[in-house]
Specification:
135 residues; mainly alpha; rod-shaped; 0% strand
Length: 135
């Protein structure tokens, strides 16, 4: 066997190997990119859901606490649902404040509830600002 025929066989072997490997590597790169994009989408959706829960909490609980004397049973139900949904999304160090807020609302202690709600409002604002800054 001479060098010319060996060189052509080597070229054919390399071409065949590349024709198999290039699509495989392309697929691996695409899959990696798709996973990254999916992860970012999930994080964005979680962030949006968290923002919605915080907004609903502030609207429902804020409305109930602010309009304390004219709060209807429906408003109280909405406020309670929003408050308890906060346990899912809020940081764990807020749970004590949420417990106190729930207790004050259930006892119709509006002044104390307003103070805790103001504190939680500041914490929500700081958290949402922190999320925006990290993006």
């Amino acid at each position: 066997m001479n060098w010319e025929s060996l060189a052509s066989w080597i070229a054919i072997a390399i071409t065949m190997a590349l024709s198999i490997l290039v699509p495989v590597f392309t697929q691996i790169a695409n899959n990696s990119h798709q996973r990254k994009m999916q992860k970012e989408k999930i994080e964005y959706e979680k962030s949006q859901r968290k923002r919605e829960v915080y907004e609903k909490f502030l609207l429902d609980v804020g409305g109930a606490v602010t309009a304390a004397t004219s709060t209807t049973r429906e408003h109280m139900n909405d406020a309670g649902a929003s408050l308890y949904e906060m346990y899912i999304y809020a940081p764990s160090d807020w749970q004590c404040k949420l417990d106190k807020l729930a207790s004050h609302i259930s006892k119709y202690e509006w002044k104390e509830a307003r103070l805790i709600l103001q504190e939680l409002s500041r914490l929500i604002s700081l958290e949402l600002q922190g999320e925006q800054n990290s993006k």
